Structure formats: C-alpha cells, structure tokens
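<instruction>
Derive structure tokens from the sequence
<entry> Chain with its tokenised backbone below:
===
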Amino acid sequence: MSQAEQKVTDELSRDAALSEEQIATLPAAGRDLFLVSTAHAFIHAVTVLMPLVYPLIQEEYHLSYTQIGLVVALPNALGGFLQVIFGLLSRYILRKVLLGIGTILGGLSTFFTGTINGFWSLLTWSTAFRLATAPQHPVGSSYLTDRYGQRRHGYALAWHIAGGNIGTLAVPFIAGPLLGLWGWRPLLYVAALPGILIGIAILILLEERGPLDRRHRARQQAVGNAPSPAWSLVVHGPKLLQAGLSLLLPLRDRTLLIIMTVSIIAAGGRGLGNVTTYVPLYLQNVRHVDSRLQGILLTLLLLGSVIGPLLGGRLSDRLGRRPMLYLFYGASVVTTLLFIEVARPGMPFWLIPPALLLMGLAVYAEAPLLQAYLADSASRDLRDNAFSLYFALAFGVGSAWGAIIGWLIDRFGFQIAFIVMALSYLLAGGLLTLIRQQPRANQC
C-alpha cells in the first residue's frame, strides 16, 4: 500500500470513529463555519447594497417600480431553481469547489453590474450574480448540517444566516456616504473584490466533511483511484437522472411539503428580499430621505438581522422550532404594519428608526428557524434533497413576490403593498398549524 493510500485509510478510519457531535467540536469546524458564513456575508452585502443603488439607477434610467420588481424577481427565480441542480452536483463535486467558484463568479458579476447602461444590462448582470451564488444556500446549509451534530443545527444555521448579516450590517452605513463621494459605479467595482478573495480562501482552506461516501470518493480521487468529477458526470449520466428524480422524494413527506409551502408564502415579506428592496425605495421616494440617512436607517433594520436569527436559533434549540416561528411570524405582521403607519408622510421622523429596528428583529429570524425545522424533520438520506428543493421553491417560486409587490406599488401604492407583505406572514404561520408530526430532533 502506498503512503497516500495509507493516509486515506487512516483518515477514513478516524472519521468513522467520530460521532457528529465530536466532529462539530474539532477546531477546524469553527474555521469552516466562519468561511461559509463569510461567503454568505458577501452575498448579503451585495443584496443589501443594491437597494441603496436602485433609487439612483431608477432616477438615471427612468425605471418603473415594476421594472425594479422584475430585476429582483427574475434573477431570484432563475437562481432559485438552479439551486436544485447544485444540490444534485454536490453528490459528484466537492462542496468547497461549488461554494468557492460560485463566490468568485459572484464577485465578477458585481463588478460588471457597475458597467450597466439601462434596464436590460442591469437585469443581465443581476441574473448572473444570482446564478453564480446559487450554491450558497443548499450547498452551504447542507455542508454545515453535516459538519455539526443534529443537536446544534439551530446554532450552525443561525450563524450561517446571522454571520452573513454581520457582514452586511456595516454596508448601508458605509455605502451611504460613499455613494455620495464616489457614485454607484465605483462602489460596485470595489464591492466585487471581497467576493473574489473569499472564494479563493474557500477553495484553499475549507475542509470537506460530509457523509462518509462523499469523503471516500473525494479521497479516492486524491490518490488516483476514482474518475474526476467531470468524467463521473458523463459516465454516470443515468445515475444523475435517477438522482434528479430523487430530488422530488421530500415532497412525499407531508411535513416537509408544508414547510416548503410555508417558505413560498412567507417570501412575500422575506427580510433579504422585499423588505430590503422596498423599504429604501419608500424612504427615498415617499419620505424623501437622502442616501446617507437611508444608509443609517437601513443599518438599523439590518441590526435586527443579526440579533433576530441568533436569538431565534438559540431559543428554538431549547423551546422548539414551531413556537419560535409562531412568535416571529406574529411579530413580523405587527412590526410591518407599524412601520407603514409611523413612516407615512406627516408622521414624526423620529418614529421611523425604532420601528425599523423592531421590524428587523422580527422579519429576519424566519429563515434560519424554518431551515432548522426542515433539517430536524428530514431524515439524513433526504436532507440534501430537501435543502435543494426547499431553496429552489423558496427563492424560485417565492421570488415571484418581488414582481408582485412592485406591481402593487405601481398600481395601488406602498401602503397596500406592505399590508400584503404582512398578510403573507400571517398565512405562513397559519399553514404551520397543519403539521402534526414531531421533528426527528424531538423524537431522539
């Protein structure tokens, strides 16, 4: 046996002896959580930066709210559906490769967004960004649930979401002044660089610790005993088709089906979606707030995006996923209606900052809670498929809300649009009551 083969055998033996909980406590686990969350931070940063840029682009190129809604909805839809493919490819290609290359291409797409000359080029590069970063949610979440034990799903996924939001928190505060100083094009050029650097770091440093068969295939490739991933995709084409059909298996589970339906409905008011897009547009065009002050206000909103997921994730590990989801969906309804009331023309401006902070605490907690509920409810052999399908539906079908909300604003105004957002939370919470099965984590 060669030295390389002996090393592979020793590593496989060591990993087989480790439990999920022991693997999650290895020093490298914290580093890997940081890398995946930092890549998420870059994606969120660009997602948050664009709503500050949209008012300037809208003014420069005379875009309607419906066009802005399409720029939000269509790329998210295509990127969302593509997440199914990336979840499937993760069976044959190392997840660090999918995450790293995707983040690098996301950085390049951000750079080219700074070169746009109208609606169609904006739509093109916005779509390129979403397609490039599509692996982050299904592949990153699946990677972290494998990396951390079941008892720490809430912890790992909360940090995946909140860790990303920590990176975005300073973006509006910094971007507001820089927009006035540099303009939006140079700002996008500079914002592209972190994505490229983070992607390179993931390719070099991330440790692949997934299911034993995935690690075994990867290490066989390292010693030359298995075909390359690209060749595997050709040779195993029929298996790939069969695996693609297996992606639909989670839909046969009633609990998983309800959770995925809830994610589609709740996308009507999802934090890093419609809320982040239309709150700055409201402040700009209805309350006539300048870009610097918009950045400060958006920072307050996003402060909740850090605290809410961490608080909700920790509490849900102790008190259960569904009770916390009911709590935060209810709070999202109340705070969304509160914002549209206190932010209307004629109301004192000082009411807006606390309303945005409370709104942020509520609306951003839903994502990690629902994902942790999904992870608890799916068996291990279905988990990768469940995450892929979940994100495809949540961000694919659910992204249609972006265009719907834009159309509602053009046709009926902001107040009706925000009321519809609030109703989406209410309906999502109501659908959760249809679940009867206890999550697997609670059955252990």
